């Protein structure tokens, strides 16, 4: 079977780096191995190196191109799809855990008197501190998973802060008694759910590798 030369491998490596801006070595090297095997297989079937390279890059082109706009700007399409799929799976686990914790919190509000503003403010503070700690833990992850996690955590913090601001606005304008209790519980649940979700996802990112599918 044909084996690519160092010069040919270097050419593929440079193309991945400069054309597709794959800045992380681990992913780029894994893709290099995968694509080199495909090129060698085509050469074994009779294609020249140049022809095989064109065909393989044409096959991978759409997946390797990074998003040019939006919250995932700079992250290749196939990685966004892969991480979104993993994120959705972890959402199910987080949903179940958050329901249990949310029910316990809801039951507690029936037996104890809580100041809704203090309770929601405390949950938000815990939420922010938790995300900050996960940020620090993600320093060991030097690839697109960390970039994806940052996007998700900022998005969640923005939404949770907005939800808390609405609750506080209701309280200031109409008083604590006028704030819809169901709305407060929904915001509490939101904090619990997304805190657990981000925690589960950062653990996933730390111990999983990208799957380079054919």
In terms of topology, how is this protein built?
Elements: H1 6-18, H2 25-44, H3 49-64, H4 77-111, H5 116-137, H6 144-174, H7 181-207
Please provide a brief summary of the model:
With 214 residues, the protein is an all-alpha fold. Helix content is 77%, strand content 0%.
Structural class designation = mainly alpha
Distance between the termini: 20 Å
Number of strands: 0
Indicate how many domains the architecture comprises. 2
Assess the beta-strand content as a share of residues.
under 5%
* Uncertain stretches of 5 or more adjacent residues: none
Helix content: over 70%
Please describe what this structure looks like.
With 214 residues, the protein is an all-alpha fold. It folds into two domains: 6-64; 77-207, no CATH class. Helix content is 77%, strand content 0%. It has seven helices and no strands. The radius of gyration is 24 Å and the shape is elongated.
Q: Keyphrases for this structure?
A:
elongated, mainly alpha, 0% strand
């Amino acid at each position: 079977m044909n084996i690519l030369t160092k010069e040919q491998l270097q050419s593929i490596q440079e193309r991945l780096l400069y054309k597709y801006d794959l800045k992380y070595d681990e992913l780029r090297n894994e893709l290099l191995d995968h694509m080199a095997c495909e090129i060698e297989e085509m050469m074994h079937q009779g294609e020249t190196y140049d022809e095989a390279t064109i065909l393989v890059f044409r096959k991978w082109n759409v997946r390797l191109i990074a998003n040019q706009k939006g919250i995932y700007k700079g992250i290749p399409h196939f990685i966004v799809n892969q991480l979104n799929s993993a994120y959705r799976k972890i959402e199910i686990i987080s949903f179940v855990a958050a329901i249990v914790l949310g029910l316990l919190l809801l039951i507690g509000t029936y037996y104890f008197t809580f100041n809704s503003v203090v309770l929601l403010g405390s949950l938000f503070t815990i939420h922010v501190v938790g995300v900050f700690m996960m940020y620090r833990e993600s320093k060991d992850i030097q690839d697109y998973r960390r970039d994806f996690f940052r996007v998700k955590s900022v998005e969640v913090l923005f939404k949770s802060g907005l939800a808390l601001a609405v609750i506080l606005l209701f309280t200031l304008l109409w008083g604590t008694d006028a704030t819809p209790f169901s709305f407060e519980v929904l915001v509490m649940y939101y904090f619990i759910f997304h805190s657990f979700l981000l925690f589960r996802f950062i653990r996933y990112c730390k111990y999983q590798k990208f799957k380079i599918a054919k």
